[in-house]
Amino acid sequence: MRKRLLLLFLLIFTSSIWSQEMELYTQFNGNFDYTAIGNTLNLEENENAQNCNILTSSSAMLSLDPGQQVEAAYIYWAGSGSGDFDILVNNQPVSSQREFSLLVNNLDFFAAFADVTSIVQSEGNGAYTISDLNLLDFINPLHCNDGVNYGGWSIIIVYEDLSLPSNQINLYDGFELVGTYQNNSLEFQLDNLNVIDTQGAKIGFLAWEGDASLADGEQLKLNGNVLSNALNPPDNAFNGTNSFTGATDLYNMDLDVYEVENYINIGDTSATIELTSFADYVMVNSVVTVFNSILPDPAVNIDDFSTTCNSREISIDYTIDNFNGTDVLPSGTSVTFFADDQLLEEVFTPNDLAPGASESFQIDLTIPNSIPSNFTLEIKVNLDNQENTIISEIDPSNNIISMFINLGDVFIASPPLDMEVCDDMSNDGVEIFDFSENTNLAIGEQQNVTATYYTSFSNAENDIDPITSPNNYPNIENPQEVFIKIQSSTDPDCFVIASFFIRVYTTPIAGIPEDLFSCDMSEMDGISLFDLTENTSLISNNQQDVGIDYYLNQADAENGTNPISNPSSFENINNPQTIYAVIYNSNYEACYDLVSFQLSVKEIPLTEIEGDLKCDTGFNANDFDLSEVTPQIDLSLDEEITGYFLSLADANSFENPINAPFSYQNTENPQRIFVRVDSNLPGVCQHIYFFDISTQHCEPFIPEGFSPNGDGINDSFFITGLYDIFENFELQIFNRYGTLIYKGNNKVEAWDGTSNKGLNNVGNNLPTGTYFYILDLKDPKFGPYKGWVYLNR
């Protein structure tokens, strides 16, 4: 009653069903039949179940007759829930290879498939126990409450029995449901049939979840005919029975076979299955058909083939047979020829071939240039472009024959390379050559060929005087042309000749370079500029067709990597530093010699001598005769003073010399002067001397009188050594009455006898007389000074 309530519920609420359609899985043709074993995991029909108990294992017996050999065995297991896909078959682990599922609203069901041929062939007759099939974790209360909790298994066994007629056995599988309000009928078609004879025809079903107690509108039809037998009433086909054992307690699964010879016709290629059920869920998992099969069995064999040297033509002898056929192979059967999967030609058999007969043929084929000389030839019989059989036959496994073909072409796979080597230091133009690389290039992937070397084309063509040691050959000319002959080892008249040149290049011998030195410049840091090419002529030593490169290290020099890009203006990075020079043959740079030399930067002698100090003549400056200091420099006969400079860098680089060293006014106080001394001897660096010139404030000279009469002599009270020297001085002049009449500083002109102080006296010429002064130099070393001066007009 529970399923009927479920159906009512489904009428009210929309439900969804998802399943897999029945399709042909595999086919067998020959003296075959099938049987099936299996068992349920249910303890009773779920329609009457009060709980959800279910087994995790069950067993069944296989009993084949003598002479019946297992050809294939497939196990299906199924149940409620999302599924357990790893089980044990006689304690051997089996995992699903294909899986099926059904979904009806929130109720899910599963089925699984695995090929267990090897197990059944090994175990043979006897008990088969399926275990570790645990569905308790997947069955939920809805399955139990609605009476749709189930589990079980079945092994379908196809066996060969030579006493049987030739049968065609088709195994179809999927997972399709019938039994809901929206899906109370199910129809599917079985294709790929070939009904030759209806006698003994049968069809078997593996279905799940059927109940013996539910038979509301339940029917199974083949081509519109209701199927039934002693175990399966016409109105309750899926009732938990096993046609192979006669069992009626296969709860909620059916393993049934029906005789159908009256429901099919000779020539049928398909059959229609219909199921109806208004209350009972039925889930069809697999269908097996068994029909008499009288068919041909075309097979192809390659008997022989022949090729011609350097030709793309090939002659094939082949045989088409019907040895295993049970029917005539008709004329017009397709035979196709392929080279590396490229179709060459299609022909058709001219005559019928009776069972057990054969016929041999010969065909000439032209192999396209796009196909390599070594290829795989395939001959296919009775197969279309997708390798499906064109006419029905017993066993398509022998419809293809293949063979590896070598056309007999002899060719130069890749052109041999010219070989170039460097002469040894004898430079006699003779060296040893190894031709093995050219052997590999010329032969490539060819089989059954040999490579021989000759000194002339004529010798190669006529097999005269071959080179006996091609991997250790001294040249006899320079350059020399060598001829390689690729020849078939099976057909000596099939060959091809190519040539290459061997050359010996002179190896230059490096001359001896000189070590280069430079005097340290500018920053006195041991870094200087060098012209490495000063050694080029020494290294080349008048040899012709040579080049020279310079390198920082020996590895780069030997590998020809990272040459110095600016050898004529190279700045060293170490002191001293080794430079590597490579002299090479300009025509073949692999021939080279390596030599090295050193760069060194010599330290510039730097000596301090005593400088010159003078009185400040204004703004901390004075005129100096720089040569007055140079007597301190002890010059040797090869040395001379070459200039005076304001910086060490200028002195080192001989730039910006002082133009008038004998009358030079300093611009800084103190100021350093650099004197450069050069030697006329080679390899001797300049010597730099330096000294400081400076000025100091000296005591000023104050005159005792002056005469501002305009005669240009002593017209002002001018104090020598004061102006622009003591720049912050202050001078005050007083008359004999102590009145300030003049105040001066560095920015005021010397006193000319005119008053610049006083309320009524500013700008007045003062009379002859004695005046008093106070001179404050604002310098703690001097003064202040107080005294008198006589003004005489």
Automatic annotation (TrEMBL):
Signal peptide positions on this chain: 1-19
Top-level division of the source organism's lineage: Bacteria
Keywords in alphabetical order: Signal
Keyword set includes Repressor: no
Pfam families linked to this entry: CHU_C
Entries under NCBIfam families matching the protein: Bac_Flav_CTERM (TIGR04131)
Protein name: Gliding motility-associated C-terminal domain-containing protein
Organism of derivation: Mesonia profundi
Lineage, broadest ranks: Bacteria, Pseudomonadati, Bacteroidota, Flavobacteriia, Flavobacteriales
